[in-house]
């Protein structure tokens, strides 16, 4: 039992490392090869975890080889578009200027209901409102609405809007995030000044957010 | 670029581990087979074989399924006991059992089309 416990921890750490090593894309949008690797790694890791008479190496070696293959494949895909096309396929135009390409829909084995469902999720309720709808290589649908159906933006209306600012968490549970401070172009001395001005101790702060306009919001620990 | 270098390193380590596994199984099997041949003539060598297997089984357990190692360990001990008892029939039958198990161990790691498929 203790061996299973230790193996589980070890394999957990190795799989975490493997997925992180493969890159951020692995944990968000999966390409075909990445999806296959993720399935395989999770399956391979579980075998030596459950069966203690199976050597741990017999699980580690395939994981290492799969991760390396994935890295090599992604590097080759960067270097060769043909190779990328073979592994990932290519994007497919489903709707062009409001007209549905039925052949492509059939090839994708996608029903009209599936297409409408995805369009509705993107606030499109009629195919005629779509200028372009493309099925990306990861299976997601990208939609460009016709210009007359798109909400006007500031440049269309000819108005000037102030620069967008976003709040960043600079203190979380009493810990200062230097990264967030640098994102907001602020520094520790500014933060110390604010805390002194507000007469609040760092350890009493639950969350403090700030933006580059030096506007801040403090939530105290309850 | 750093990532690809690390990937190449990990790949080579995995390959080296595979090759080491193959070599250690091959050499162990060969040594055991030669010990079994000699034990048929000289029963004294059975204890030497048992000591050799005890040493090697530790390393092999990193690569080979533990059930296979356990089976061979039991068979080697029985061979040693049979050789020491002086019962020729028991000794010969036990040697052939051990030889069959060693052959299985060797064949399971052979780089052959049969194993790959």
Describe the structure.
The complex is a heterodimer of chains A (222) and B (117). With 222 residues, chain A is an alpha+beta fold. Chain A folds into three domains: 2-86, no CATH class; 92-149, CRO Repressor; 168-220, bsu07140 like domains (CRO Repressor). Helix content of chain A is 49%, strand content 16%. Chain A has helices at 2-22, 32-50, 57-79, 81-88, 102-107, 112-121, 154-157, 178-183, 188-198; strands at residues 92-96, 99-100, 130-135, 141-145, 168-172, 175-176, 205-210, 216-220. In chain A, strand 7 and strand 8 form a beta hairpin. The mean pLDDT of chain A is 84. Chain B is mostly helical. Chain B has one domain: Four Helix Bundle (Hemerythrin (Met), subunit A). Chain B contains five helices and no strands. Chain B has helices at 2-41, 45-60, 66-85, 88-108, 113-116. Chain B is elongated, with a radius of gyration of 17 Å. The termini of chain B are far apart. The model of chain B has no long low-confidence stretch (mean pLDDT 85). At the A-B interface, helix 3 of A face helix 1 of B.
């Amino acid at each position: 039992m203790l061996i299973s416990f230790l193996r589980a921890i070890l394999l957990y750490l190795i799989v975490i490392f493997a997925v992180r090593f493969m890159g951020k894309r692995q944990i968000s949008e999966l390409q075909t090869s990445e999806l296959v690797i993720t399935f395989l790694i999770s399956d391979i890791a579980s075998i030596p975890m459950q069966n203690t008479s199976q050597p741990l190496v017999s699980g580690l070696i395939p994981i290492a080889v799969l991760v390396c293959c994935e890295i090599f494949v992604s590097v080759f895909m960067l270097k060769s578009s043909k190779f990328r096309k073979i592994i990932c396929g290519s994007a497919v135009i489903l709707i062009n200027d409001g007209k549905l390409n039925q052949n492509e829909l059939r090839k994708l084995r996608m029903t009209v209901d599936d297409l409408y469902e995805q369009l509705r999720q993107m606030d499109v309720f009629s195919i005629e409102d779509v200028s372009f709808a493309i099925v990306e290589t990861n299976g997601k649908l990208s939609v460009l609405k016709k210009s007359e159906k798109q909400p006007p933006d500031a440049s269309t209306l000819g108005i000037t809007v102030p620069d967008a600012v976003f709040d960043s968490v600079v203190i979380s549970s009493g810990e200062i995030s230097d990264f967030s401070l640098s994102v907001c172009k602020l520094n520790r001395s500014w933060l110390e000044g604010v805390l002194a001005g507000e007469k609040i101790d760092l350890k009493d702060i639950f969350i403090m957010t700030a933006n580059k306009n030096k506007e801040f919001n403090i939530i105290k620990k309850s | 670029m750093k990532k690809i270098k690390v990937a190449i390193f990990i790949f080579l380590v995995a390959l080296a581990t595979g090759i080491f596994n193959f070599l250690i199984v091959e050499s162990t099997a060969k040594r055991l087979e030669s010990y079994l041949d000699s034990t048929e003539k000289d029963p004294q060598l059975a204890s030497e074989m048992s000591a050799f297997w005890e040493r090697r089984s530790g390393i092999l357990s990193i690569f080979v399924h533990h059930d296979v190692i356990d089976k061979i360990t039991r068979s080697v001990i029985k061979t040693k006991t049979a050789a020491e008892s002086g019962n020729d029939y028991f000794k010969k039958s036990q040697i052939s059992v051990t030889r069959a198990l060693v052959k299985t161990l060797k064949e399971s790691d052979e780089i052959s089309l049969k194993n790959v498929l």
